[in-house]
Amino acid sequence: MSQLSDRYNPKDVEQRTYKWWQDNHFFSALDQSTKPPFSATLPPPNVTGMLHMGHALDYTLQDVVIRYKRMMGFNAMWMPGQDHAGIATQAVVEKELMKQDKTRRQDLGREKFLEKVWEWKETYGDRILEQCKRLGLSLDWDRARFTLDEKSSQSVEKAFVELFKKDLIYRGTRLVNWSPKLESAISDLEVDNQQQKGSIYHLKYPIENSTDFIQIATTRPETLLGDTAVAVHPEDSRYKDLVGKYVILPIVNRKIKIVSDTYVDQEFGSGAVKITPAHDFNDYQLGKRHDLEMINILNRDGTLNENMPKEYQGLSVKDARDKILIELKRLEFFVKEEPHTLNTPICSRTGCVVEPMLSKQWFVKINDLAIPAKRVVESGTISFEPEMWTKTYLHWMNNIDDWCISRQLWWGHRIPVWYCKDCDHHTCAIGKVSTCEKCNSKNIEQDEDVLDTWFSSALWPFSTLGWPEDTEGLKTFYPNDLLITGHDIIFFWVARMIMMGLHFMEDVPFRKIYMHGIVRDSQGRKMSKSLGNGIDPLEIIEKEGADALRFCLLSQVQGGKDLKFSEQRLETARNFMNKIWNASRFSLTVLEGFEAPKDGTSATVATVDLSLPDIWITQKLADTIEEVNKSLLNYKFSEAANALYHFTWNELCDWYIEFIKPIVYGTNESEKKATQMVLAQTLNRTLRLLSPFTPFIAEELFSKMPIKSGSCMGDQYPTLETEKDWLKIASREKAKELDIVKDVIVAIRNIRGENRIKHSDKLEVSLVIASPELQKVLGENKSFILQMAGLKTCAVTDAANMQKCAVNVVTTEWGKIEVVVPLEGLVDFDEEVKRVEKAIEKLQKDIGLLERKFNNESFIKNAPPEIVEADKLQMKNVKQEIRVLSEHLLRLK
What are the residues facing 191 on neighbouring strands? Predict the structure, then answer.
């Protein structure tokens, strides 16, 4: 039997173990198998990405489920892959080019630039996937995919062409988020709204054929040049006579109409606002309602364009603002400026201000795709965990806009549309097109734009399995059983996968969606570079090990809620790993000479040889197996992790191992062999239970155990059904007996601690018990109490002299136990009086709280009967404890 080193060192274990798993193909699933399938897909990280705490949480949750399902006998497939991350990757490579030789992508041209990007991808692109291995993720690496690989390109082209031919994709001019630095449309996900100091500018526009003015308030005076209306609220009596009239737009001298619309906030500024439909999303919607002209004032780089007066053309937005304000003041149209906090949209990739801008783009018509995507959630075909995200999803789907899928980039899936310069026809087709499908002209050119990265990601659940080919993998693993992801991409990715899956596969892409929150720092702040509070999971793995990081996250994750990461939690998880290691190290020592049963883990022992601790730990193991399985099946990760923590640390390590030391070091060979068998069997099952959560340490320890199979992760996950033969030795009634013994030991230890009595002082204790059942239980197990409480004597009696004694009360279903410890010569009696008075005061507060509950008619009427009964029982027990302590106080005085 292998022995263990003095302390657990993750560096000695993790990379060696992971290589062994990979070399033996433990992560591989089969396209055809007699096992039931279970599948999930890794949300593909960006090829530019580095592992961060959000990844660590997201991926660990998925790994727990996959490892659990694999051990439960499923043909479990977890698809790995990466996203080409169009904007991020292009930005990284452009920055590198500028740093190396001051070369811009435009200097290289499209083909040469793309060669550079592929070179970068081959050199650096797999970093995050290698980092995933450090976390212990059991991904099916042989299936790894990339959203820009050849198979994905085929899927994307097929999807685009089919949607185009069904009139579900169109090209049109609409308002989009525009990044002037990227010179591209971007998605909402690439927009960070930041609060910045700014101003509200009050201006006046002259009313046509009048000497009067209408005063408006704006935070963006530079967009004045693109105004096509002034709007007021229909119920604003100040402006009723002006609705339908015109004002003369200052500087431009263009006539624009005054319209009424409920969009206007009467309390903002003067209650009248300028409308620039081509540069504000709310104005754009108002402009469509009122059929307003839409004037784009910007070039692709964010400077003012040829639609503006000549003196403003080519100016940046900031310079244009300054010039316009000077001119407004000169023309006496400027009223005042007030400080104001603005919600400014910032491009997360470049840091520039995002400009809403009218632009010709490609769009997916969403409405027809959204209807079935709503129905599958409303019907429960797809369910969210937690369920509250269902409402969020449906609300968004009911208010969804068409999806802008084009980007003005070079890195990505190029739009498969060719324009004929002779007849203006658009040819949309798979593969390279050389002639116009309408006039056969060769004078054609392909659209310069590429598709939004989310377009290829929307196809991910089925494109990764071979679609559009009808592969065995597609038949076996589609739809996926589970998607785990953060709630921040519910619209960008989750909803779009559902729509695309239903359209192309005529089935949902997954059955269950588990939404988790984000990992915040210990103060609850979002981790960011600006705050400098980011935590590198690789540094944690290097220092404390992957299992400690995994368990730290798993023990506190709650569906949909953000969690705070703290060093204290991490330290607890690391100490847990050390506790498991040290307990296993001790166990291997006392298991020297133990012969493993030939029939594996099914062998039992003679009941007559079992000690009460053996029966107790087996019952606690059964309870833990039941609770962990139930929690995992319901995606209650923290409940499962904390149940394992409690069992392993408290019941197995702190209590059972201490209880059995006299047995394994004793002379009764039959009892010793029985306990060795129980210990070995319990360790085997405990490590298998831990394996999905802490796979590295579980595998390493499992390999050293006398009872084991080939690998821990490849063994069977313990359930009440699979372990029923072994668990026959468990007894809930017998386990209760040892729980009572434990409570007595704890009560004695508490008296020792509260009174600062040294452990070396052997106490003389009396256990005052009226119940014959309790007298029998404690009498038979007195040796455990003597050993573990550090006693000289322990008398089990129905009466005792309680003068100058400390008394603790243990309440059981068979009656109470008064634990009496004489304090003469051991403690300061004045201090003990204070302690007891304080305890009585606390209990009286507890009674006050309970009494307020019972005096509340609403509580009595609405609370479940079992809650009311439990509170009544608590009231009874607390009153009994006060009586006992009051008697003790009298004795002390």
Answer: 347
Question: pTM for this one?
Answer: 0.87
Measured CA distances, 35 to 73, 247, 448, 566 (Å)? 7, 75, 47, 41
| DSSP class per residue in 702-730 | HHHSSS--S-STTSPPP-TTTTHHHHTT-
The two structure tokens encoding residue 816: 């109470």
Return the pLDDT at 598. Answer: 77
Contact 702, 688 (CB under 8 A): yes
Crossing angle of helices 546-554/537-544, nearest 10°? 120
pLDDT tens readout for residues 682-729? 999 999 999 999 999 999 999 999 998 889 999 999 999 999 999 999
- CB-CB contact of 768 with 725 (8 Å): no
Six token digits for residue 389: 């995200």
Cα 697 to the center of its chain, rounded Å: 24
Q: What is the pLDDT of residue 4?
A: 87
How far is residue 591's CA from residue 601's CA, in Å, rounded to a whole number? Answer: 16
In sequence order, what E strands does 228-372 have? 229-232, 246-249, 254-260, 272-275, 334-347, 355-364
Residue written as tokens 């509250």?
Answer: 388
Torsion, CA 847, CA 851, CA 853, CA 858, rounded to 10: 170
Place of tokens 């040049």: 225
Pairing of strands 355-364, 403-404: antiparallel
Residue 457 corresponds to which tokens in the numbers above?
């990601």
Q: 602 and 728 in contact (C-beta within 8 Å)?
A: no
Q: How many other C-beta atoms are found inside a 10 Å radius of the C-beta of residue 421?
A: 11
- In the block, tokens 């498991």 appear at 580
- Rg, the chain, Cα only: 36
DSSP state of 387: T
pLDDT tens digits, residue range 763-820?
A: 999 999 988 999 999 999 999 999 999 999 999 888 877 777 888 889 888 889 999 9
Is residue 465 within 8 Å of residue 473, measured between CB atoms? Answer: yes
